[in-house]
Write a structure and sequence with these properties.
Blueprint lengths: L4 H13 L2 H8 L3 H15 L4 E4 L2 E4 L1 H25 L8 E6 L1 H6 L1 H11 L4 E6 L2 H9 L5 E6 L8 E9 L1 E6 L9 E2 L8 E5 L4 H11 L5 E6 L2 H9 L5 E4 L13 E6 L6 E8 L6 H10 L11 E2 L2
Parallel strand pairs: 3-4, 3-5, 8-12, 9-10
Antiparallel strand pairs: 1-2, 5-13, 6-13, 6-14, 7-11, 7-12
Helix pairs in contact: 1-2, 1-3, 1-4, 6-10
Length: about 300
């Protein structure tokens, strides 16, 4: 069994972005080169990693298992490169970070672990708040950086952003829900069905705006700020929910099983990004943090985006 770093990089990109074309555009390579690389990777592993569908590519069970290890491989390579660039023992000081509610529960721990692994000395202070309030604090110099989900491709006025993860939306449902028999759910199947929306990090706004634009008539059961409430309501059959994969867990707190299915016409993936004040002088600690949490695929990505 032999595979290359590039194959792993392409595999993770497709898994996170949901389609070969999106991965090719993000990594600035041709779709054909990614196709060949994935075919060679599947041949090397002797299993199918993706189901090819008209609207994109969906991970198989084997693909989902391999994804966790693939991300670890990418992160290990990044850490190895970083160890040659910076002496972590020389990076000290304090960094003030912000995080939105959803990311506090599902992304923050991983980001801090990466940072601590590379730079163990700096002190860290964290504030949880909405994206809008965090952006104001960044502009005012009260925060050094913040982890947010950007509703658009660009951050707010005067801010710079680095995209670190894309999390596609899937439809959550109870294990015995009729839609669980399908691998992909069409918008028409949701007509009149009770919908549960997560009213934090603009998850509800993104999904509702997308489907209303597509002409769907939504039956909103509840908008809640609690992911666990969404999971429990879904698991007991109260309704279905369109949620980004980063928050998916198989079981509710009550021990009921949750299923997730691909959407034929999903909202745009949730773009997890690190934002900071544009033009501000970066301290060694902030530079270290940005380096540590940088997406392992970012070696092939364009420069961080900014809006003046």
């Amino acid at each position: 069994m032999a595979f290359s770093f590039r194959q792993i990089q392409y595999f993770v990109a497709i898994a996170e972005l949901g389609s070969l074309s999106n991965a090719a555009k993000t990594l600035n390579v041709t779709p054909s080169s990614i196709t060949v690389a994935i075919q060679d990777l599947e041949e090397s592993l002797a299993c199918r990693l993706f189901e090819r569908r008209a609207r994109g590519m969906e991970l198989t069970i084997k693909g989902q298992q391999f994804l966790r290890h693939a991300r670890t491989i990418l992160e290990s390579v990044v850490q190895a490169r970083r160890s040659l660039e910076t002496d972590p023992s020389l990076v000290a000081g304090r960094i003030n970070l912000g995080v939105t509610p959803l990311l506090a529960g599902y992304v923050l721990a991983e980001l801090l672990a990466r940072f601590r692994q590379s730079f163990p000395n700096p002190q860290v202070s964290i504030l949880e708040d909405t994206r809008e309030d965090l952006e104001h604090l960044l502009i005012g110099g009260e925060l050094d950086a913040a982890a947010v989900i950007l509703p658009e491709d660009e951050p707010g006025q005067g801010l710079q952003a680095m995209h670190i993860q894309s999390s596609p939306y899937r439809l959550w449902m109870a294990a015995d829900h009729p839609l669980a028999r399908h691998s992909t759910v069409e918008i028409a199947a949701l007509e009149g069905m009770p919908m549960i929306f997560l009213a934090t990090d603009e998850i509800a706004e993104t999904a509702e705006k997308h489907w209303r634009k597509a002409g769907a008539r939504l039956n909103v059961l509840v908008r809640t700020g609690s992911v666990e409430a969404v999971r429990s309501l879904v698991a007991t059959g109260a309704g279905v929910a369109a949620m980004p994969d980063l928050a998916f867990r198989r079981w509710s707190l009550e021990g009921d099983r949750v299923e997730a299915r691909a959407l034929a016409d999903p909202p745009r993936p949730a773009r997890v990004s690190i934002v900071w004040r544009r033009g501000a002088e970066q301290s060694p600690v902030l530079k270290g943090f940005l380096s540590a949490v940088r997406n392992p695929q970012a070696a092939d990505l364009p420069s961080p985006m900014a809006k003046t």
